[in-house]
Amino acid sequence: MTTFEWIKHAFDYVGGAQDEPPPGFPIQLGHWWFWAVWWGVLVLTIYYFSGQSSKFIYIDF
Amino acid sequence: MHAPKRMFFLALAGILIVLIVLDRAVARSAQNSVPRSLMARARESAGAKAVALGNSLIGVGFVEPAFDAGMGLGDRDGAINFGMSGSSALEELLMLRYALRQGLRPRVVVFGFFDFQLTHPLEFDTRDLIGNRAMLYYLEPEYARTLYHLSPHDRAEFEIMRHFEIFVDRGEVWGRVELLRRKLAQQGMPPEQANSLGRAIDFGLLEYPSAPAFIAECGRAIRNPLIPSVREIALQAEAAGSEVYFVEMPMPPEHVQLFYDQPGWAGYRAHLRGMLSDLGASYIDASHWMPDQAAFADPLHLSYDGSQQFSRRLGEYLRSAAPAQPEY
Questions:
Q1: CA-to-CA distance for B162 and B221, rounded, in angstroms?
Q2: Fewest CB atoms within 10 Å of the CB: B27, B79, B127, B256?
Q3: Spatial contact of B118 and B58, defined as CB atoms under 8 Å apart
């Protein structure tokens, strides 16, 4: 399996398109902490970039 | 409990922990924000005999040592500048009230303004309450809410948001992301003119698009009263024993020629003078004090040298105008 195929397989697994993880994939989706980290990272990403629609004229605060 | 249900609630608890950590991190990041730094200065400057209020025009245009030299104030009783970029008279009123509660009893209070800031009604929505304006969430929010308009939807949002730092000081985080975005956008592009406040081209957006539009606004504004925050600044400063001066700030020659030399502005200025005089406050027209474009760093703000000259001249002016008070 090439690196690209491994990454694709990993994303397929995380996204639910494959039932089995690629060889050596370190995370078990059955663990609650995986989903906490997953949603936590998504919340952080949304929070950090949700100010895009604000017009910053002054940016010295 | 079923395994999926258990996993869901445990994951939910994990997300809550992430949010609590984020909330604390934002609070820590914002502890030195401009409003909080100025509040800290107010606590340490009880001897200040002059206070400057206003938006960025005062924030960068009022240089404390130059003003002190002009007015003859020393290190211990020197002026304190509460000017904040992007602020309205409301945030400045809150800062003045905070300073007075800390024991400041300034002999002179100066409020610098431009265009229609003194009569333009304050209507916000929660999207506006970022940056320095975020102080409306935490400095006397109930009192401040009586002085500006929010829609019922925004009122409800405000009440929820003001209890969480991730909402109150979200501008701290968003500002850094915006700076990163600008830095990335500048890769391989000609450098943009910018200063400590932001991009010079953006400040042009705060000006009226044309002389006819400005004159038309003069016609409307001449019927408007002072906004409540401005009235309160005058009344509360006077009640604390201060002489209050509203300063029409120096503007670049093009702005003066295009807008302030129009008869409509002269009429509006007379209207302001009359209303402020009724409150016992004085009006200083400093708009023509800096006739050289070189004294300005961008379409609105004074340069470093221009700020020094203006501040010293203002200090000298007030030294001759403000009655001396005995020290107790």
A1: 33
A2: B127
A3: no
Separation CA B296–CA B250 (nearest Å): 9
Tokens of residue B186, six digits: 């500048």
The closest of B35, B182, B157, B24 to A51, measured between CA atoms, is: B182
The answer to whether B106 touches B47, Cβ cutoff 8 Å, is no
Task: Report the distance separating Cα B213 and Cα B204, nearest Å.
Answer: 15
Q: What is the least distance, in Å, from the CA of A1 to any CA of chain B?
A: 32
Q: With contact defined as beta carbons under 8 Å apart, do B55 and B87 qualify?
A: yes
Q: CA B49, CA B68: separation in Å to the nearest integer? A: 10
Residue B177: the pLDDT is 92
Domain covering B33-124+133-149+207-321, topology: Rossmann fold (3.40.50)
3-state secondary structure of B51: strand
**Do B302 and B289 form a contact (C-beta atoms < 8 A)?**
no
Count CB neighbours of B174 within 10 A.
Answer: 23
Question: Which residue of chain A has the CA closest to B55?
Answer: A58
Q: Which of B142, B135, B117 is nearest to B57 (CA)?
A: B117
Please tell me the distance from the alpha carbon of residue B294 to that of residue B193, in angstroms, as a whole number. Answer: 15
Q: What is the Cα–Cα distance from B200 to B322, expressed in whole angstroms?
A: 35
Nearest to B127 among A30, A52, A54 (CB): A54
Tell me the CA end-to-end span of chain B in Å, nearest whole number: 74
Surface of B (273-292) touching A: CB under 8 A? none
pLDDT of B2: 63
Contacts 24+ apart (CB under 8 A), B135-139: B135/B35, B135/B91, B135/B94, B135/B95, B136/B90, B136/B91, B136/B94, B137/B161, B137/B162, B137/B167, B137/B168, B138/B162, B138/B168, B139/B35, B139/B39, B139/B94, B139/B95, B139/B98
Q: How sure is the predictor about A34, in pLDDT bands with cuts at 50, 70 and 90? A: confident
Residues 6 or more apart whose CB falls under 8 angstroms from that of A15 comprise: none
Contacts of A57 in chain B (CB under 8 A): 86, 198, 202-203, 205-206
CB-CB contact of B98 with B233 (8 Å) = no
